[in-house]
Design goal:
Structural class: mainly alpha
Family: Belongs to the binding-protein-dependent transport system permease family.
GO biological process, one term: transmembrane transport
Mean pLDDT: 83
Transmembrane segments: 32-49, 87-108, 114-139, 151-168, 174-194, 206-224, 244-268
Organism: Rhodococcus erythropolis (strain PR4 / NBRC 100887)
CATH class: Mainly Alpha
Low-confidence stretches: 1-27
CATH topology: MetI-like fold
Order of helices and strands: HHHHHHHHHH
Subcellular location: Cell membrane
Number of helices: 10
Strand content: under 5%
Shape: globular
CATH architecture: Orthogonal Bundle
Length: 281
Amino acid sequence: MTSTAERLPTQREPGRAKARVPANQTMNLQPLYWGTFGVIGFLATWEIISRFHLLPRDALPPASTTLIRATRLLTDQTFLAQIGNTLWAAFVGYAIALVIAVPAGLLLGLSNRLYALTSTIVELIRPLPPIGLVPLLVLVAGQGLEMKATVVALGCVFPLLVNTIHGVHSTNGVARATARSFGWSPVVVAWRVVWPSAIPSVLTGVRVTVSIALILCIGAEFIGGSTKGLGSWLLQQSMLPQGIESVCAGVIVAGLLGLLVNAVVSVLETNFASWARRDES
């Protein structure tokens, strides 16, 4: 009797494990379902507000006609060239921010003295809005790529820097001490222990700031009077008599760009930092 009773739980475990797999897969798909419903609900609300003239037609065109206009824009070579200019400026500025912020964050995170020396300066400059510097940057760097890349770099460098420092500070102290006890040099410890531990925090900063880069670049084009880029195109369309539909369509395309870039970063985060989630669980 005792042996039979002891076998029963072990015989049920495979069945339980198989029953849990579909449930987990369903839970993983729930954000996609709810996100789709949210988009449909938003578009339906937008259509109702416009069709029933709850807002003036020249202020909010119907969602259906705006989506058709956005689809046509995606086949317009002139519009695609403007998007390419914006993406290139955002990429250059973001690359500059990465090259500066990640090594500086590792250095400041590893050195308590340097961190104490610079933390006040970083916290003082970090809240300054880069868009507010556009008029000054136009005078210094003009209205082209240099100005837009500088705005993007200034807006992204400090969030990346803070996240990198946080990742270094969250490194397991026992792991660092163990590595030093094996005679590893500080450079080897930083490369083989500290940097892998800081990667999840760095990628979190990348995921947050990559969308900010697009926003800053479009805003700099809009405010700085650039002749190229999505922001410049939106400004020109807003001055036309019936340009509100094109402006709304351009905003939708900009949102889709941000969604696409965020999806790419999420894939990178899953591939290079998935082990961090497993350790936390």
